[in-house]
Amino acid sequence: MTLTFEDLPPGRLGTFGPRRVTREEILAFAAEFDPQPMHLDEAAAQRSMLKGLSGSGWHLCSIMMRMMFDGFIGRTASLGSPGVNEVRWLAPLRPGDDLMLEADVVEARVSKSRPETGIVTFKCTARNASGQALCEMISPIIVMRRASGGSAQEAS
């Protein structure tokens, strides 16, 4: 079943995962996209404020996007996103972390300029196995409405 705007009211959408992050993928991502010492070199990482090898925040965002796609966006009538409103890196991504993704709908409103669509804003939080929040992302997605139209969530 394809999820439409009407299927995404404010509240908890779900928890997705786990997704294990390996040392090798942290190093590979960093080597190509974010070659800072704390993402590539164990000794330099130990001397950094992170006190050990950590994945790039951009790597974590990429993993979160994949988890969002596999968890719900892949079955949503999504037309894309106008961007990300906020990203906060809260704690380091470590080799061997098993990530879970919590997804909440924080706002759902009908588009004033394109009423056949709605704008659904998600807050996603990536947590490690101990429950520590590593990253929070708030992002709107443009979603098709059902052909029947009408909803209690219509914006004025």
How many helical elements? 4
Total of domains: 1
Structural class computed from helices and strand pairing: alpha+beta
Portion in beta strands: 25-35%
- CATH-assigned fold name: Thiol Ester Dehydrase, Chain A
Percent helix range: 10-25%
Q: Architecture, CATH level 2?
A: Roll
Mean pLDDT: 94
Distance between the termini: 29 Å
Largest sheet: 6 strands, antiparallel
The count of strands amounts to 6
Query: Any low-confidence stretches, pLDDT <50, length ≥5?
Result: 149-156
Q: What is the CATH top level name?
A: Alpha Beta
Give the SSE string.
EHHHHEEEEE
Spell out the blueprint of helices and strands.
Layout: E1 11-20, H1 23-33, H2 37-40, H3 42-47, H4 57-71, E2 78-80, E3 86-89, E4 98-110, E5 117-127, E6 133-144
What's the short version?
The protein is α+β, with helices and mostly antiparallel strands and 156 residues long. It has helices at 23-33, 37-40, 42-47, 57-71; strands at residues 11-20, 78-80, 86-89, 98-110, 117-127, 133-144. Residues 149-156 have low confidence and may be disordered.
Q: What would your notes on this structure say?
A:
The chain has a single domain, classed as Thiol Ester Dehydrase, Chain A (Roll). It contains 4 helices and 6 strands. It starts with 10 loop residues before the first strand and ends in a 12-residue tail after the last strand. Mean pLDDT is 94; it is low at 149-156. The longest helix is centred in the middle third of the chain and has 15 residues, at 57-71. The chain is an alpha+beta fold and 156 residues long. The protein has helices spanning 23-33, 37-40, 42-47, 57-71; strands at residues 11-20, 78-80, 86-89, 98-110, 117-127, 133-144.
